[in-house]
Every structure is written in structure tokens, then in C-alpha cells.
Amino acid sequence: MSTTFDDIRGASVFLTGGGSGIGAALTDGFLAQGARVFFVQRSDASDFCAAMEAKHGIRPGFAACDVTDTARLKTCMDRAAAENGPITVLVNNAANDLRHKALEVDEAFWDRTQAINLKSYFFACQHVLPGMIAAGGGAIVNMSSTSYMMGAAGFVGYATANGAITAMTRSLAREFGPQGVRVNALAPGWVFTEKQLEMWADEASVAAHLKRQCLPHPLEPQDMIEPVLFLASSASRAMTGQCMAVDAGVVVSG
Fold first, then answer.
1. Which phi and psi angles does 219 have, rounded to 5°?
2. pLDDT < 50 regions, the chain
3. Whole-model pTM?
4. 158 part of the active site
5. Could you say which of 137, 162, 179, 230 would form a disulfide bridge with 133 (CB–CB 3.0 to 4.6 Å)?
6. Average pLDDT value for the chain
7. Which member of 30, 48, 158, 176 is catalytic?
């Protein structure tokens, strides 16, 4: 990283899905800024936490959690606040972009998709807001996706949830701005995480997508760190209710 965000040092940061993919890069980035980080994900992250401790000299807090279990998610957030102080930065990052055909979606699959990609975001926001208000303000960053902006096919449930994340972000920003809470969304383009490379990034698809980008280089998880830090820090103190695309120039907003 080339940028230092001094106000993030010592901040209590809570991330969902913070031990793999983009989330792992974000945990790394916040720790590098001196933040106190607590994250949740379904799978064990002990090895990752140990690696972060070796790198930064501080171990992130971690608890196993299925974010669709709202009661468990709230318990983990309460634990994070008890260990690190009131949460002043929330990053909703956990998501599942499993490919699916619209005509094969049943009600259970649809509900599960929305629970992971949308419901968990709202209830994490709802639970953290009173503490942020009491602390005099805070920053929420909801990870969306350019998939819905592009009208991408093959994962209608995921794309629908991400469109709703942007709408939710704008509504919460309007409601809680007077209490000093900023709520923004960040929409990554196609970021080549290990999961993407293993499951969907075949040579032809990657080549076709890179041609759509203004900037020709493939996006990596590290490319999302500083944009998220910007939205979490006072550097973006005049921004709220926005959805910022970080996709190497595929979509255009404004």
C-alpha cells in the first residue's frame, strides 16, 4: 500500500468473510494501518490469523459464523465490541456468487441466496448502528458488485442482492447521516481470487472480460484494499450513500 490513513489506527473494525479472498486482503490492509480487527467466516481461519500475527505483530479476532444465522452474527459483533471497543467501521463482505440458471431456482435456493448476500448485510448494519451513534459516528462499507450494473447473466439471485445492497446503502445513509454515520458501497469488478480462478476463470472468459476493461491488467484482491480504507476513513468524510465501482473501467457511473 502507498497510502496511510491515520484515523484508522486503533479503530475497532468488524468484517464479515474476512479470512479469504477479498476479505483476507481487507483484514491484512486494516491491520497494516494499525486497526483492531475482528472478522467472521464459516470456515476455520486459525492459520490465516497466525500469518497475520506474524506479519503485523497483532492477531485479528476471529469467530466461526454462518452470517445467515442472525443471532450468531450479533453475538460475534458483541464479542468484537467487548474485545476491541465499540465498532466504528463495519465492512459487510461475505457473499456467495454461485452460478445458477434462473429456470432452475427454487424457493429455498432463492431464500438462501438472499440470506447470504443481502439479509446478513442489513442485520449487521442494524446491530452496529446504535454503538456508532453513541460513539459519535462511524463508517459502514457494503461490498456490492458490478454484476447487476452489467446485467450479467448466470447468477440472477446474486445480481439481484447486489442491486438491493446499493439501494439499502442509500436508504441507511439518508436515515443515519444526521447521527454521523456514513454508509457507502463498493462494487468490485471481476477480482481474480483463488475461488474465481479455480471455478470460473477459464482462459476465454478472462480474455473477453479484460477486453471490456479500460485498464488491461487483471484485478487482484489487493486492488480493493485502499478503496475500502478510503471509504472507511475520514478521507471520505464528505461521502455517503454512494456506490463506488472499482472494476478497471468496465462500468461508468455518474
1. -80, 140
2. none
3. 0.94
4. yes
5. 179
6. 95
7. 158
